[in-house]
Amino acid sequence: MEKNIKLTDESELKVGLVGNPDTPTIMLPVAKESVYGQEAENLKMWGVDPELGKHFIEGLVDNFQILYFDYEGHRLQHPSPENLTPENIVKDLIKIADEMKVQKFSYYGYSWLALVGLQLAIRTDRLESLIMGGFPPLNGPYKEMMVVTNKTYEQALFNQNSPVMNEYNDVNPENGEWDNIQVKIDTNQTKQFVTMYKNLKEFDDRIIQHKLAIPRLAFAGDKDTIVYGENFGSLTVDIIGILQKNKLDLEHNGWDIEIIKGDDMNHTKAMQPVTVLPLIKPWLLKNLNITC
Any keyword Hydrolase (predicted)? Predict the structure, then answer.
């Protein structure tokens, strides 16, 4: 079943629900639409599965009901520059669950959609479990990401009248040419993430840990350290370093922590279905008490 759902900003998002309704529901806001042809080849060059959403759904639907949508893609097409706050994002997710008549559900998000899951968990009692990939649930890099998103927005503003831009497919990601990318996109797309991180400036993820009484898993690739050049604030967002440093504290607070090892297991590689599914599926089966 698929349905267009009106969100808090009146934009409409296509949402799907598939699988046995008698099984636990997994909310997947990361379920991107499949792409083909040259666009797919460009994504593969960056290590991205062009059928990411399809593969996640197929990998989980035999044991779970899947509530799926592409929230990031929707926000890039329908930016909310002034109102993409944690509160409004959570309202969107709850409305999606309500419209699809899903009362209880687990949540899996990666990167900024992982931190969204943490915001969801402290604002509702409807979560059965939480999985955060690529963003640490303790001492998260909110200040660093505020700098990066601000710099991205500034570049987008500056480059609006630039006649030339470097598309991502003109840059070789394997050579680490991040500083060669000139940001020339809709300024509203970038401003909405400035708004989100600005509203997380005072958020203390340590004092909310006691509110989390559900099974929860956090993971990252063992090479998930993003070094941003001068264009983006000359700083490092050390996802794996933060997660490793706080591993004992997190486990003490009831988190399961997994470090994914592998050849160049960076932020992008650790979010692909071929990497994630072997980790999260057994964890969900165990923690939701499902026997195959």
Answer: yes
Residue pointed to by tokens 């639907």: 61
Neighbouring residues of 113: CB distance < 8 A, sequence distance ≥ 6: 29, 30, 71, 72
Query: What sign results for the dihedral spanned by CA atoms 35, 40, 46, 49?
Result: positive
CATH code of the domain covering residue 72: 3.40.50.1820
Q: Is 27 helix (H, G, I), strand (E, B) or coil?
A: strand
**Residues 63-89, mean pLDDT to the nearest whole number:** 96
Instruction: Report residue 16 as tokens.
Output: 């799907």
Q: For a pLDDT cut of 70, what percent of the chain falls above it?
A: 91
The pTM of the full predicted model, rounded to 2 decimals, is: 0.92
| β 105-110/127-133 pair status | parallel
Classify residue 76: in a domain, yes or no.
Answer: yes
pLDDT tens figures, 128-170: 999 999 999 999 999 999 999 998 888 888 777 665 444 433 3
Full residue range of the structural domain in which residue 99 is found: 2-140+202-226+239-287
What domain count does the chain have?
1
Q: Is residue 218 part of a domain?
A: yes
Q: Which residues contact 167 (CB under 8 A, 6 or more apart)?
A: none
In a domain, 188, yes or no: no
Judged by DSSP in three states, 16 sits in strand
